[in-house]
Amino acid sequence: MSKKKILIVDDEEDISYSLKEIIESQGCEVFATVKNEEAWEIFNKERPQVCLLDIHMPFSEFDGIELLRRIRSVDKNVICLFLTRIEDDETKETAKALGVNDYFEKPLDGDAFDKLIEYVS
Amino acid sequence: MTYLGFSGLINFITCIFLGIFVLLRNPRGVKNRTYFFLNSSVALYSIGYYIWQLCSDENYALLWFKVLVIGIILINVTYLHFVFAFIGILKKKRIELGVYYFINFIFILLNIRSLLYSSIEPRYSLGFWPNPTLFFNIYLIFWFWQCLYGFMWLIKGLKLFSGIKREQIKYFTFAAIIGFVGGATNWPMWYRIYFPPYLNILISVYIGLVAYAIVKYRLMDITVAVTRAGIFIVVYTVVLGLPFLFGFKTGLWILAMVFMAVLATMAPFMYNHFRHRAENILLEKQKKYQKALRELANEMSQIKVLDELLKSVVEKVEEIVNPQYIGIYIYSKGENAYNLKNIKVNEKYPFGIQILKDSSMVSTLYHIKKPIFIDIIKDLNMPNIQRDVLLVPQFVEGSLFSFMILGPKVNGMLYSEEDIAVFDILTNQVALAIEHCLYWEEEKVRLARDEQIRRQRSMDHFSASMAHEIDNPIFAVQCTVRSLKKTLFEEFQSIIPEDKVGYLENKVNSISKNLMRISKMIKAVREFSKQTTGEFEVILMDQIVETYLSIIEPQIKFDSIIFNKDIEPNILIRGNKIHLEEALINLTTNAIHAVKYNNKANKKIDLKIFRNGSDKFLIKIIDNGYGIKKDLLNDIFLDFVTTKASTEVTGMGLARVRKIVENHGGRIWVESEGENKGATFILEMPIMKKDNKK
Predict the structure, then answer these.
(1) Closest partner residue to B526 among A86, A108, A113, by Cβ?
(2) Interstrand relation of A5-9 and A50-53 (parallel, antiparallel or unpaired)
(3) pLDDT exceeds cutoff 80 at B650
(4) Other C-beta atoms within 10 Å of B319: how many?
(5) Residues A24-29: contacts with CB within 8 Å, 24+ apart?
(6) What confidence score (pLDDT) does residue B224 get?
(7) In chain A, which residues have their Cβ closer than 8 Å to the Cβ of B519?
(8) Which residue from A minimizes the CA distance to B479?
(9) CA distance linking residue B233 with residue B275, whole number of Å
(10) How far apart are CA B314 and CA B382, in angstroms?
């Protein structure tokens, strides 16, 4: 069985690449990036099974919600997770409506981290 | 015409004129009426005197002499009548006065029946004079008694009254003595003693004095007695009287007519001249007052601070009347008393710094609602107080907000009706200005509260975004630590010296643990910063309590805690339902925590909600848990202060509760006897009045 493909987008390099290391150690093939445009390209090229997205992407052309919308427009089944700061209720509702599979608020405590790892392993 | 006859005529004219004038100013006033009777009696006497002096026929002279004597008899009894009315004891003296009237009536009968004197005869070329009988001797004694009795009461009146009334009595007494002396100069002639009664004209002096007192001291309560009409009458009396006197003295009537014609031509100019002068003199004081009042009204409308307002009132009052001292007392609701606020005093200031609301002074002011002199207050218990002390009340919306105490004037002058009228106006203006100030002070508090809420909001916004910004780096460190841990203990495990593995593991775990603590704090700050100023609505406490109980009661039951509720229904509050519920839940959760971890057999929490006065209600949450140390009681509502084990909580809960309570215009405090002695959290919240419900 080929390695599980995971896409990680976070505008903070430390988060993006640390997560990549952690998840790679679970035996996954991880594509990490700090830009949504690049993430969208990677998604179309690699078709990962799990996408870890961030909503606030100040240095990208579009935000995480838009990226989710694009992914959902081509793939309804891929697992999409938001790993983001605490958002207002409205944003959470939008994300839910667009079919996000789970929603993690930074920073993660131990349990949440374990739950996140479960998704990718 | 003889001089004596002339004095009678002048007396008649002045008396009848003043009598009618006083009566017309207030026909229903008992003082005015009795004074009119008195003057009519004097007038009757004077007209009788005048005609009697003119008579050359003995029979006619006797007839008019009888008229004159009727006048004398009536003068005394009407004089007593007036004195009683003047001093205000008429009701008490009704029967006594009736007896006097009766006795005098008998003397009138005796007079008509010619029993007071046997006959009249020409004497010393001064007209016809009588031969007194025994009855007359008795009457004369009675006459003197009545004079003295009247004066006795007038002197009592002087002791009884103060201020302007005292001045009035003083002047009337003086005038009456002059009048009676004038009249009494006739008695020697009755007994064949040569003593021409030239002083009979003093009766007109009496009238003049009374007229002066009317102008100066508002005798008979007549205000502004001197008018243009008055000046007109005086001017024309002189214009017509002087030529008449000239004609009478010299007999040169033609010359007198020419003289009169000349004066009559000049009269309009004289009238105008005197009118101007009189008005200037009379109105000067009034103008000064009006100016001062206008200035004060202007100033007062600009002032928004109560203390400054009072200061400026005191300054102005000082400028207007210059009393020895001025004290302003302002009501303090808490003490139910009036406290001395702003004063100009000297060492003689006789009043205390506080005057109780139920004191006789305050109740008298409440009753009269106008400026009063201190001596009308009963039970004052200040034996040495001067009489001429004025109390000036200020009423705001029907209740006595404050009052001024004005000492006697420095220049020794008495307070006049004008002064009192000015203070009456001033009082109303001051009351309005005080209301104005109170409004501004309320407004200031409101603005400060708004400003505080605004600052709070921006503070909340700031801490929320801070928290947001900190979240990301913390998470980055978390991830980094995780991957570091992996690398260290999975990849490099073989090259780490055996004895350092535990040490490194400890250190890395410590980083993780402390990261979690930071992240918890951040979360608490974010919770705290959540809006506490959301939409307010008018809501029944019952609704809030219902939701709150549905959340809290299962937990209380689960922990086997006895929960007593005593909740007064139908209390309206204006507030945010969710926040209020949150506050109650937070406090109760604390209470549960406090009793749960306190090893007592009876774990108990009481909830009491009840009205406290008409505009506030209290919420008490009482537990018998682990209590609060005394030195923590004041700090417990500050951020990050807690009585619980510190790793478990952040200490932001009570700070948020306080914030919610304060946002609702309430306050919160805690009472505790100390550790393990339980704690009572008390919330004092404003009740929403039904009529303000919009």
Answers:
(1) A86
(2) parallel
(3) no
(4) 12
(5) A25/B483, A25/B486, A25/B490, A26/A117, A26/A120, A26/A121, A27/A3, A27/A121, A28/A3, A28/A4, A28/A120, A28/A121, A29/A3, A29/A4, A29/A5
(6) 47
(7) 107, 109
(8) A18
(9) 11
(10) 24
Region of B340 on the Ramachandran plot (φ > 0 left; ψ -120 to 50 alpha; else beta): beta
HEC string for B171-197: HHHHHHHHHHHHHHCCHHHHCCCCCCC
Q: Tens digits of per-residue pLDDT, B396-421?
A: 778 888 888 888 887 777 777 677 77
What is the distance between the alpha carbons of residues B405 and B563, in angstroms, rounded to a whole number? 58
B694 pLDDT band (50/70/90 cuts)?
A: very low
Diameter of chain B measured on Cα atoms: 164
Residues of chain A neighbouring B480 (CB-CB closer than 8 A): 14, 18
Rounded Cα gap, residues B452 and B445, in angstroms: 10
Q: What phi and psi, each to the nearest 5 degrees, are found at residue B649?
A: -130, 170
Q: Taking the mean position of all CA atoms in its chain, how far away is CA A67?
A: 10
Q: Is B484 left (phi over 0), alpha (psi -120 to 50) or beta?
A: alpha
Pick B287-438's CATH classification: 3.30.450.40, 3.40.50.720, 3.30.2420.10, 3.90.850.10: 3.30.450.40
State which H helix or E strand residue B108 sits in: helix B94-112
Does the distance separating the beta carbons of B526 and A18 come in below 8 Å? no
Candidate from B473, B483, B515 with C-beta closest to A22: B483
B397 vs A115: CA distance, rounded Å: 69
Say how many C-beta atoms besides its own lie within 10 A of residue B605's C-beta.
23
User: Which position has the token pair 């002189």?
Assistant: B238
Predicted confidence (pLDDT) at residue A16 exceeds the cutoff of 60: yes
Option in A19, A25, A85 nearest B472 (CB): A85
Each residue's pLDDT tens digit, B152-176 = 999 988 887 776 778 788 888 888 8
CA distance A88 to chain B (A): 11
| 3-state secondary structure at position B477 | helix
Which phi and psi angles does A89 have, rounded to 5°?
A: -60, -35
Taking CA–CA distances from A23, the nearest residue in chain B reads B483
Q: Write out the residue limits of the CATH 3.30.565.10 domain(s) in chain B.
A: 532-692
Give the SS3 label for residue B682: strand
For residue B62, give the H/E element and its range.
helix B58-87
Written as one letter, the residue type at B566 is D
* DSSP, res B691: G
| ipTM of predicted assembly, 2 dp | 0.78
Eight-state DSSP code of residue B608:
E
Domain made up of B532-692: CATH architecture: 2-Layer Sandwich (3.30)
Long-range interactions of B548-551: CB distance < 8 A, separation 24+: B548/B581, B548/B584, B548/B585, B548/B588, B551/B581, B551/B585
Within chain B, which residue ranges are assigned CATH 3.30.450.40? 287-438
Helix/strand/coil (H, E, C) string of B131-168? Answer: EECHHHHHHHHHHHHHHHHHHHHHHHHHHHCCHHHHHH
Asked if the B3-214 domain carries CATH number 1.20.1070.10, the reply is yes
Q: List the end-to-end C-alpha distance of chain B, in Å, as a whole number.
A: 90
Q: Where in chain B is the domain with CATH 1.20.1070.10?
A: 3-214
What amino acid is encoded at B218 in this protein? R
Residue A64's Cβ-side half-sphere holds a number of Cα atoms within 13 Å equal to 30
* pLDDT reported for residue B693: 43
Report the C-alpha gap between B220 and B391 in whole angstroms. 24
pLDDT beyond 90 at B134: no
B46, B74 in Cβ contact below 8 A?
A: no
* Interval B72-98 mean pLDDT: 89
Contact B537, B576 (CB under 8 A): yes
Q: Which two tokens stand for residue B189?
A: 């002639």
Are A21 and B475 an interchain contact pair (Cβ–Cβ within 8 Å)?
no
